[in-house]
């Protein structure tokens, strides 16, 4: 895979980047606190794991009809999304704890979702965070099938009404990843990314197969064998669980990058982006609903995406405190800070952007 280079000769952009780091780290020094998680994060972790595991155990241990069981699969899906956003996400970034073994252990909660840690590290930590909203590099805006998320992607008739049907397909995110992980790992192997980031390709394939077999046996096999529900009811419950989690995760992720004001770019023929990386992140990312305390808690601070992208090594529990510092510094240097005041504002903006992407002809990549 060709490497993108951020090349900047703008003195103001360089000064902004330096001032931003200085201001944020000065706040932690002044408060005398760690940039990592604390006891509140531990409580949050316990709650999310409980929401995920407890309803599953209840299905096996408490007599109930199918409708109640289906409701519990929705709750399991909510817990699944919560683990991904609040626990795994910080841990794989190394921001959950100052102790590497804690991050590794809690990053492994990704396996509870049936997915693969190495794939996530490459797709999210490296490609998405380094090349945010850059066509062909950031797989989060890769356009596939009925959904077009990149302004540079080919426009098809099916995209015209994607602002209506997108959310159904968002719900297929985690269930499709059960299969997509294999092709994705093959792509990373061929591009040399697996070995580059410490993974043995053969072992990663073996581990992936083993994890998915165990996962499918637990969440499909055990309910078929040890509950009174029919096989098709077990499969339906599995689908509902994943659709709930997938819809939550996809919607939250896209409301930070596929909204009005979040730029999309393509590198030139030399693979160069003429911008300071910190300014690029500011231009391609959006915050939303900063004052919604419950939303911030449940989605692991992912509504503070600007802060997360600029300081992914800082735990999400601090984002609400450092956001005013980031915003103030950006405005002092004359840069736009993209903030949607409420969840509804961000959702409307995302839907409007989906509608635009479903109807506008592709942008041309400049030389």
Layout of strands and helices, then pairs:
Elements: E1 5-6, H1 11-31, H2 39-61, H3 66-93, H4 100-107, H5 117-130, H6 162-170, H7 173-190, H8 193-196, H9 201-226, H10 231-254, E2 272-273, H11 277-284, E3 287-288, H12 293-298, H13 305-310, H14 319-332, E4 339-340, H15 343-357
Parallel strand pairs: 1-2, 3-4
Helix pairs in contact: 1-14, 2-3, 3-4, 3-10, 6-10, 6-15, 7-9, 9-10
Can you describe this structure in just a few lines?
The protein has 367 residues and is mostly helical. Helices cover 61% and strands 2% of the residues.
Please characterize this protein's 3D structure:
It is a single chain. The chain is mainly alpha-helical and 367 residues long. It has one domain (5-357). It is built from 15 helices and four strands. It has helices at residues 11-31, 39-61, 66-93, 100-107, 117-130, 162-170, 173-190, 193-196, 201-226, 231-254, 277-284, 293-298, 305-310, 319-332, 343-357, and strands at 5-6, 272-273, 287-288, 339-340. A two-stranded parallel ribbon has the order 1-2. The radius of gyration is 21 Å and the shape is globular.
């Amino acid at each position: 895979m060709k490497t993108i280079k951020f090349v900047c000769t703008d003195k103001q952009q360089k000064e902004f980047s330096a001032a931003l780091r200085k201001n944020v780290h000065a706040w932690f020094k002044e408060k005398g606190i760690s940039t990592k998680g604390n006891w509140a994060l531990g409580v949050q972790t316990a709650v999310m794991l409980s929401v995920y595991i407890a309803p599953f155990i209840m299905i096996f241990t408490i007599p109930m009809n199918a409708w109640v069981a289906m409701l519990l699969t929705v709750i399991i899906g909510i817990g699944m999304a919560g683990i991904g956003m609040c626990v795994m996400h910080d841990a794989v970034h190394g921001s959950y704890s100052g102790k590497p073994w804690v991050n590794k252990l809690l990053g492994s909660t990704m396996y509870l979702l049936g997915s693969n840690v190495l794939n996530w590290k490459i797709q999210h930590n490296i490609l998405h965070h380094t090349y945010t909203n850059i066509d062909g590099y950031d797989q989060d805006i890769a356009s596939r099938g009925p959904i077009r998320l990149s302004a540079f992607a080919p426009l098809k008739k099916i995209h015209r009404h994607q602002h209506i049907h997108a959310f159904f397909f968002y719900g297929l995110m985690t269930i499709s990843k059960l299969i997509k992980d294999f092709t994705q790992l093959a792509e990373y192997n061929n591009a040399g990314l697996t070995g580059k980031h410490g993974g043995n390709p053969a072992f990663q394939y073996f581990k992936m197969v083993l994890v998915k077999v165990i996962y499918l046996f637990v969440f499909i096999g055990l309910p078929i064998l040890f509950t009174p529900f029919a096989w098709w009811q077990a499969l339906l419950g599995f689908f509902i669980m994943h659709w709930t989690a997938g819809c939550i995760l996809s919607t939250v992720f896209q409301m930070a990058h596929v909204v009005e004001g979040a730029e999309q770019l393509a590198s030139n023929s030399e693979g160069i982006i003429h911008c300071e990386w910190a300014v690029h992140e500011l231009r391609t990312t959006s915050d939303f609903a900063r004052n919604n305390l419950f939303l911030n808690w449940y989605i692991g601070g992912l509504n503070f995406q600007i802060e997360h992208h600029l300081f992914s090594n800082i735990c999400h529990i601090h984002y609400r405190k450092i956001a005013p510092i980031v915003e103030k510094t950006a405005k002092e240097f004359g840069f736009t800070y993209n903030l949607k005041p409420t969840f509804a504002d961000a959702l409307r903006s995302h839907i409007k952007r989906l509608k635009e992407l479903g109807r506008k002809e592709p942008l041309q990549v400049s030389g």
